[in-house]
Amino acid sequence: MGHILMVAVVVILGAVIAVFAFGMAVGVTRTVAIAVTAQQQGDDIVLTYMGGEDNPSLHRLDVTGAEADGTAIDDSFPNTPPAVGDTLRIAGAGSPENDRVVVVAELVDGSRQVVLDVVV
Length: 120
Description:
Layout: H1 2-21, E1 35-41, E2 44-51, E3 58-66, E4 72-76, E5 87-90, E6 100-107, E7 112-119
Antiparallel strand pairs: 1-2, 2-5, 3-4, 3-6, 6-7
């Protein structure tokens, strides 16, 4: 039993070392810790930037999506970079049906990541 356990530990340790030695861990992206909320208020969709751990790295928030009738949503938060508590009201974009909203964060290093993909 002890020999089997030792072999298993050596194999796992070798695999972990190989991941780093052969560069397999390179290119793994980290999830951006930024929060944005979306809600429908009457005929409008209101988005609020709630901040997060990566707030100092945030450059811009872009909003895309589609209204239920297929009309495209394409907007950005007004401040660059956005301040915690900033809101974006997309007038007339809300409907009784499902409207899709996608928020993409652009960081100061130029990378982009979806931080919200929701139906309101």
